[in-house]
Known about the structure:
The protein is mainly alpha-helical. It has helices spanning 8-28, 51-70, 72-75, 81-100, 106-123.
Amino acid sequence: MGWGWIERPALAGIFAACLVGQVVAADLSTVPDADYCAVAGTSNLVLIDDLAELRGEVVRLMDESVAVARSSEWINSSRPVFVWASEAKAYCGMAYGYLRTNYKDEDTINKCECFHSRMIEYMN
Length: 124
């Protein structure tokens, strides 16, 4: 039978809707590549040698990120604060999990601090 039952204007509408979806998705991913995060380098948190102090800082960043991710102000905002808060809470949670076993995973700590910084940047 094929697609003969669909009229050409309907196909054009479907095609246009797909293009609009792609344009919106492209707009959301226009984060500048330069200085995206300090992940390539060493974050300030990684420089903390005292694991108890480091755990405290990671928990602080995680708590702040969780609060922002739960806030309807940022959930409904057109700014990407919610996205960065969600990423920060995930990576800070992973970093905290490692720290609870006395393992200092630099990658998750770097991402925790980076994503939290991005969250703060978009809040202001």
